């Protein structure tokens, strides 16, 4: 199996820093299913290519299978695994380039955080469903896709095409994003995994799919194929994606071949219910200007912009990639000058004061606070409630008591959550914020309510108890 990654970023040899593999060395890594070799067939300032070759050992692979795995006799040894990219190549790439996938590069961290021109080539890739599936999976991620079907026999035209394609992707992306996308989509295209799948597969999918899978138009297809159509794992993953994404109306509905019946109420994604609830609160408060703090890829911003009652809308996030997604979602480049004046997107960290946060009727922190390290939470409180001081702050956050009702969920709902509060813990935090900064708070639930555990999402509506202008006038007197 062969995979090549090429860049024309200058100097192109910085690719060696990003991959943590030196261009002047050939490196081999022994794995349970074969040997992985990384080398650079070309390395200049103008163009650099890293090649990963996986030499599968069919005997070693067969001996490493579980004792109770089905015996396919000769098929264990005679197959296409040595020649066609598959889940094994995805595993090898994820393992050998693990640090690159994390986006960490001390020598070139700014470059690791940046989108660079990339070209990825896989000469033989199983693609169940034909070349069209490759286009459907990669194009929404910003890739230009060339998927050339490979004929069964070039000398016999009547036989037609095989299930393999020659894949070439070109685009400008962060290298870590590209590698994580491949880690997920290689087994999806092959629709087969050559190793045993456990409950931790859902966590792997959530980690590799962070920032792109929830918004992907084929998220349900990707999830079902990645998890080998295991109904239990798939339902768990889709429920967790529904927490993050806005476009998964069918996320928790079973596949046609699953003999289960989902409760009617689970068919509305929780994230959609959150957006509905917060949107209604903003209307009820009479807010005219709203800032979405930690706006991510702009799902909720899109709803705000479409609501004429909000005459001024802003979105801020620490991630420039998320802001780029938000700009594309809102089609900022196609807006008229008048429309563009109504919306502002800017990068900012909520643990540092920023004058741009101030001056809004309401601020939204939707599923944000739980991503902040607890020691830094006080800084966020000061920035939002102390410095920016909008008339209202709307906070949503998971209710950890409800987690027991999610089948297969181990730990917290998202790998990046630093904590998840019980209802009592949220109330304690909210009361402390109110007493410190002069707000009142009302706490509600969002989603289906369990008699003993409450609702899955907690909603806290903070309203300022003092008029800062009047208070300033009194101080001046």
From TrEMBL:
Keywords: Magnesium, Metal-binding, Methyltransferase, RNA-binding, RNA-mediated gene silencing, S-adenosyl-L-methionine, Transferase. It comes from the Bacteria. Its cofactor is Mg(2+). InterPro entries: 3'-RNA_MeTfrase_Hen1_bac, Hen1, Hen1_N, Hen1_N_sf, Methyltransf_12, SAM-dependent_MTases_sf. Its EC number is 2.1.1.386. Pfam families: Hen1_L, Methyltransf_12. One of its GO terms (molecular function) is small RNA 2'-O-methyltransferase activity. Residues 291-390 form the Methyltransferase type domain. One of its GO terms (biological process) is regulatory ncRNA-mediated gene silencing. Residues 1-242 form the Hen1 N-terminal domain. It is an enzyme of class 2 (transferase). It catalyses: small RNA 3'-end nucleotide + S-adenosyl-L-methionine = small RNA 3'-end 2'-O-methylnucleotide + S-adenosyl-L-homocysteine + H(+). Belongs to the methyltransferase superfamily. HEN1 family. PANTHER family: HEN1, SMALL RNA 2'-O-METHYLTRANSFERASE. This is Small RNA 2'-O-methyltransferase. It comes from Nocardioides glacieisoli.
């Amino acid at each position: 199996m062969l995979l090549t990654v090429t860049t024309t970023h200058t100097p192109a040899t910085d690719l060696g820093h990003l991959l943590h593999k030196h261009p002047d060395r050939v490196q081999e890594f022994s794995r349970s299913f074969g040997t992985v070799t990384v080398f650079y067939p070309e390395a200049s300032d103008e163009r650099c290519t890293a090649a990963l070759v996986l030499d599968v050992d069919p005997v070693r692979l067969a001996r490493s299978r579980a004792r109770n795995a089905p015996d396919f006799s000769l098929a264990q040894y005679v197959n296409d695994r040595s020649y066609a990219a598959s889940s094994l190549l995805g595993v090898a790439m994820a393992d050998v380039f693990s640090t690159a996938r994390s986006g960490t590069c001390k020598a070139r961290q700014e470059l690791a955080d940046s989108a660079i021109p990339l070209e990825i080539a896989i000469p033989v890739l199983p693609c169940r469903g034909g070349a069209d599936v490759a286009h459907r999976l990669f194009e929404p991620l910003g890739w230009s896709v060339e998927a050339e079907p490979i004929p069964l026999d070039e000398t016999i035209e009547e036989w037609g095409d095989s299930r393999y394609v020659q894949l070439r992707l070109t685009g400008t992306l962060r290298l870590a994003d590209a590698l994580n996308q491949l880690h997920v989509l290689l087994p999806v295209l092959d629709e087969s995994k050559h190793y045993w799948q456990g409950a931790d597969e859902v966590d792997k999918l959530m980690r590799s799919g962070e920032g792109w899978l929830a918004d992907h138009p084929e998220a349900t297809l990707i999830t079902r194929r990645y998890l080998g159509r295991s109904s239990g794992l798939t339902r768990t993953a889709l429920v967790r994606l529904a927490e993050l994404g806005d476009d998964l109306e069918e996320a928790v509905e079973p596949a046609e071949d699953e003999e289960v019946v989902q409760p009617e109420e689970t068919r509305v994604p929780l994230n959609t219910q959150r957006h509905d609830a917060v949107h209604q609160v903003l209307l009820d408060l009479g807010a005219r200007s709203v800032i979405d703090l930690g706006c991510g890829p702009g799902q909720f911003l899109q709803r705000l912009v479409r609501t004429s009652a909000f005459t001024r809308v802003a979105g801020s996030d620490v991630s420039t990639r998320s802001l780029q997604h938000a700009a594309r979602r809102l089609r900022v480049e196609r807006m008229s000058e008048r429309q563009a004046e109504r919306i502002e997107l800017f990068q900012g960290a909520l643990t540092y004061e920023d004058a741009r946060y101030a001056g809004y009727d309401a601020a939204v922190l939707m599923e944000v606070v739980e991503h902040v390290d607890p020691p830094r939470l006080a800084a966020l409180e000061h920035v939002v409630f102390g410095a920016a001081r909008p008339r209202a702050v709307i906070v949503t956050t998971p209710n950890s008591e409800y987690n027991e009702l999610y089948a297969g969920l181990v730990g917290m709902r998202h790998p990046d959550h630093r904590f998840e509060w019980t209802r009592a813990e949220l109330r304690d935090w909210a009361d402390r914020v109110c007493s410190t900064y002069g707000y009142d708070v009302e706490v509600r639930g969002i989603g289906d309510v369990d008699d003993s555990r409450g609702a899955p999402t907690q909603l806290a509506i903070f309203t300022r108890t003092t008029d800062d202008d009047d208070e300033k006038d009194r101080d001046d007197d």
